[in-house]
Every structure is written in structure tokens, then in C-alpha cells.
């Protein structure tokens, strides 16, 4: 899945001499074995990722110096390479989380796709670095370099939590940069919450994001036993904050699809990952639809919201033998299948 080098990494291979002068802390949009390439060219990098799937894949490759979480551990780093993430706010977050580990004068690199916001590198680095140079540009990707001149304040996760009220449910939703629905409730999730009625027993909030669905269900049915899973460390932390802020309690943990989940549930509820063009997201949802029945007690149900054009009813029918449509709007459908 992460085997092929991205165009950004291909461009970086032309700059390995400068990148491998010091062991780098690498973070951001890691989608290939760039760390392996850096390790071949010089000192092995230290990798920090918020993506549980990438973490597991690198661990399977034998890369030992990899951390998964909301921020890297406290040990010092000689330099930083940030691979530009999709959201600019996430880039700001990662710089704030990683730069306190560097000493003054340490090199800071930002690389990314030209269409993915890398051009904002000088602006992103302005609070920390004097001069920002563009080192290379090829394969529609660019590499910027700077030197850390202003030592950043110690990183505090709490400073990055944003909040918005969910008035219908009287909940306060907490989010972190780059987390789905970070500023307002998604309209698909809203329809899902409106449609779901009676629930009981053990419930899985699959792909919990900021914890909107799980927290709403628990608020309505405090007797539920809730588990929330996501692949993204910032989503998991946001869900924990949402639950805590609303005095709700659930088990929140990292899982790639259902891989780290055990036992059977009365209900699996989800607004599943969907992003046009990202093949892995379809793969996650297809795998969920084909294996969810194995994680449900007899009579248990899978309830999801999906864009109306997605071919999920066929996949659900194939696996459950039937698929009910509980609600339909121009854009969304709510599907239910019982085991
Ligand atoms: C459409 S969002 C829904 C978020 C939240 N439930 C809501 O309704 O606002 C889908 C979520 O699935 C997560 N996700 C993506 N791939 C995943 C995977 N392989 N396993 C678990 N969660 C995943 C994403 O990080 C994202 O938070």
C-alpha cells in the first residue's frame, strides 16, 4: 500500500546529500518508505506519525525508531523534515509539536506537492526561522529549507483544541487540526444521528473523528457501552476530549478498520471514511462492509451514512443478504443491515 515512492519523495531523492547530513525527525504526510531511503543515504531518521496504519506498516518493515501519537517524545532532534499535510492547520500543529525538540541553528525542511499547500512553507516557518530558501522543485513538488532561529515555546496540546457546540444534543465537541468535522457537524453525520433510534448494549463508533457520533449516542442512551476507534491519533485525542468535556465515558483506541477490535457488538455505527481519489479509503469501507457481520451479535446491526452515489447497497447485500434504506436525501443515504 505504501510501496511506491510519491512524487514528493522522488524529488527528495535528488536532495539526499543535504537531507542526510544529520538524523532528521520526519513527520507529516508519510505515504511511502522515504524513511528507508534516508536511512540508506545517511543516519537513520526518527519518524513521528499520527497515522496508525503507516505506523504499523513501518513497524512491519522493521523501522524501530517510529512513534505514533499526538506529538513526538521529548528527546532532542538534530533537524526536522515536515511533509506537508493536507490541512494547513495540521502543518502549524506539527511544527509547534516538533520544533521545540530542535536547538537553535538546526535545519528545518518542508517538502510537498505544489498543489498541496507547500508554497505556504515560508509563511508557516516565519514565526520560527529567519530566511526560508526554496532548495528544489521537480515532479510538481518543492523542497524548502530554513534554520531555526527563534526557539518555540514548549508544546501544549490543550492550546490546539478547538470547540463547537452541538445544540440539539447539548454537547460540546472538541477537535484538533485536520480532524474530520473540526469546525461543525457534517451533514451526513447529522442525518445519521437524526435517523438512529433505539440502541442497546455494546456499540462501536467506527472512524470516530472528533467523537460526535459516539458522544451523541451515549448522551441519549447513557446505558450503552461505547467503543470509539479511528486510525488518526489526533481524532482519537479529540474524541477523548469530547467525551471528557461532556462527562461521558467510552473506550477510545487506535484501530485500522476492525483489525484491533475484538468481540461482538450490538451495533456498529459509522460515517465511514470516504474521499474521492484516495483508494485506501474505499478499501477501508469495503473491508468494513464485508466483515462487519463477523463483529455483530445475532440480531445486531450495522448502520451507516453514505453519499447516495456510492455502490454500498450491493456490497452490504452481498455480505448480509439484505440492505435497508432508513433515510434518503438528495445527497445521502442511511443504510442498515442486521446480522
Ligand atoms: C467521515 S469521517 C467521520 C468522523 C466522525 N465519525 C463524524 O461523523 O464526524 C471518517 C473517519 O474515519 C477515520 N478512518 C480513516 N481510515 C480509517 C481506518 N482504516 N480505520 C479506522 N478509521 C479510519 C478517519 O480518520 C475519520 O476520522
UniProtKB/TrEMBL annotation:
Catalytic reaction(s) noted: guanosine(1207) in 16S rRNA + S-adenosyl-L-methionine = N(2)-methylguanosine(1207) in 16S rRNA + S-adenosyl-L-homocysteine + H(+)
Known EC number: 2.1.1.172
Keywords from the UniProt entry: Cytoplasm, Methyltransferase, rRNA processing, S-adenosyl-L-methionine, Transferase
EC class of the enzyme, as a word: transferase
Pfam families, alphabetized: MTS, MTS_N
GO molecular function per UniProt: 16S rRNA (guanine(1207)-N(2))-methyltransferase activity; nucleic acid binding
Chief location: cytoplasm
Cellular component GO terms held in the UniProt record: cytoplasm
Methyltransferase small domain mapped to chain residues: 171-336
Record flagged with keyword Transferase: yes
InterPro entries: DNA_methylase_N6_adenine_CS (IPR002052), Mtase_sm_N (IPR013675), rRNA_ssu_MeTfrase_C (IPR023543), RsmC/RlmG (IPR046977), SAM-dependent_MTases_sf (IPR029063), Small_mtfrase_dom (IPR007848)
Domain Methyltransferase small N-terminal positions: 9-164
Compartment list: Cytoplasm
Quaternary structure (record): Monomer.
Family: Belongs to the methyltransferase superfamily. RsmC family.
HAMAP family assigned: 16SrRNA_methyltr_C
Function field: Specifically methylates the guanine in position 1207 of 16S rRNA in the 30S particle.
Name of the molecule in the record: Ribosomal RNA small subunit methyltransferase C
Gene: rsmC
Amino acid at each position: 500500500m505504501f510501496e511506491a515512492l510519491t512524487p514528493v519523495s522522488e524529488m527528495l531523492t535528488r536532495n539526499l546529500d543535504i537531507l542526510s547530513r544529520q538524523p532528521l525527525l520526519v513527520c507529516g504526510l508519510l505515504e511511502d518508505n522515504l524513511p528507508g531511503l534516508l536511512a540508506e543515504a545517511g543516519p537513520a531518521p526518527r519518524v513521528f506519525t499520527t497515522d496508525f496504519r503507516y505506523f504499523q506498516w513501518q513497524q512491519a518493515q522493521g523501522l524501530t525508531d517510529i512513534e505514533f501519537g499526538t506529538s513526538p517524545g521529548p528527546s532532542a532532534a538534530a533537524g526536522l523534515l515536515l511533509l506537508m499535510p493536507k490541512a494547513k492547520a495540521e502543518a502549524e500543529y506539527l511544527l509547534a509539536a516538533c520544533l521545540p525538540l530542535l536547538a537553535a541553528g538546526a535545519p528545518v525542511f518542508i517538502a510537498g506537492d505544489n498543489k498541496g499547500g507547500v508554497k505556504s512553507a515560508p509563511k508557516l516557518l516565519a514565526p520560527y526561522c529567519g530566511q526560508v530558501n526554496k532548495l528544489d522543485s521537480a515532479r510538481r513538488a518543492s523542497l524548502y529549507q530554513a534554520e531555526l532561529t527563534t526557539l518555540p515555546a514548549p508544546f501544549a496540546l490543550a492550546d490546539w483544541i478547538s470547540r463547537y457546540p452541538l445544540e440539539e444534543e447539548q454537547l460540546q465537541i472538541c477537535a484538533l487540526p485536520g480532524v474530520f468535522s473540526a469546525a461543525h457537524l457534517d451533514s451526513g453525520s447529522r442525518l445519521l444521528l437524526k435517523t438512529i433510534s433505539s440502541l442497546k448494549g455494546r456499540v462501536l463508533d467506527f472512524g470516530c473523528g472528533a467523537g460526535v457520533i459516539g458522544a451523541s449516542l451515549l448522551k441519549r442512551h447513557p446505558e450503552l457501552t461505547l467503543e470509539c476507534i479511528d486510525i488518526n491519533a489526533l481524532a482519537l485525542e479529540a474524541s477523548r476530549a469530547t467525551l471528557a468535556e461532556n462527562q461521558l465515558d467510552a473506550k477510545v483506541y487506535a484501530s485500522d478498520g476492525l483489525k484491533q477490535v475484538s468481540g461482538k457488538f450490538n451495533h456498529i455505527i459509522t460515517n465511514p471514511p470516504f474521499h474521492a481519489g484516495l483508494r485506501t479509503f474505499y478499501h477501508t469501507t469495503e473491508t468494513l462492509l464485508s466483515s462487519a457481520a463477523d463483529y455483530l451479535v445475532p440480531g445486531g446491526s450495522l448502520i451507516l451514512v453514505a453519499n447516495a452515489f456510492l455502490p454500498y447497497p450491493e456490497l452490504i447485500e452481498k455480505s448480509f443478504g439484505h440492505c435497508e434504506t432508513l433515510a434518503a436525501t438528495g445527497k445521502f443515504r442511511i443504510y442498515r443491515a442486521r446480522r
